[in-house]
Design brief:
Elements (H helix, E strand, L loop, with lengths): L1 H32 L3 H22 L3 H19 L5 H7 L20 H18 L11 H26 L20 H4 L3
Helix pairs in contact: 2-5, 3-5, 3-6
């Protein structure tokens, strides 16, 4: 009777080991991709293109695309928003600097770029897998969904942009500022000739 429990445990052990090895390898490559944002985003755009081609050729899964669009809009709002909302922080007395004499506080995103990228990439992969199951192909009139999503996007972005203008923050920085140091002055020996 003891042999029956040992067989189940021995069958689970290789599966757990494989899962652990896969998890470690996945995390290793994920960590290695961190300093390469351009390559990461190119891969995400490739995954998005594959997804859009799949939806186009199948001529369906519009409700999945709509849900994907709403999820991406939600991620975008988190990416563009500061970690500490100035409207709520103003009640406590501390806020983003609004004039030159205020203390400088760097913009910290509510959703960091890496997590934003990772979530969008996962969303496209999950949506792609969903296109292989007919249960998710709900018949809808897709132009209505598209119009509704565009209206939702415009209203949400308008509110977000007004928030950025009101509290004077810009959520984009295109790399770190590079300091080259002092430039060498023209030497007097080069200017005067004998």
């Amino acid at each position: 009777m003891e042999g029956g429990g040992g067989d189940a445990a021995s069958a689970v052990a290789p599966l757990a080991k494989w899962r652990n090895d896969f998890s470690r390898a996945f995390q290793y490559y994920l960590d290695r991709s961190t300093p390469h944002p351009v390559h990461r985003w190119l891969g995400t755009f490739a995954a998005a293109a594959v997804y859009f081609l799949r939806v186009y050729y199948v001529q369906g899964f519009y409700i999945v695309s709509y849900g994907l669009g709403i999820y991406i809009l939600n991620l975008l709002i988190g990416f563009l928003s500061p970690k500490i909302d100035p409207e709520l922080e103003a009640l406590d007395g501390a806020s983003l600097p609004t004039k030159g004499s205020d203390e400088f506080k760097p913009f910290i995103r509510r959703l960091p770029e890496f997590k934003f990228w990772y979530s969008i990439t996962k969303a496209f992969c999950v949506a792609f897998v969903m296109t292989f199951f007919s249960v998710f192909d709900v018949p809808v009139f897709w132009p209505i969904l598209l119009c509704y999503w565009i209206v939702l996007f415009v209203l949400t972005m308008k509110r977000q942009i007004m928030h950025m203008i009101k509290y004077k923050y810009v959520p984009f920085s295109f790399g770190k500022q590079k300091y080259t140091g002092k430039k060498p002055a023209a030497s007097s020996s080069g200017l005067m000739r004998d």
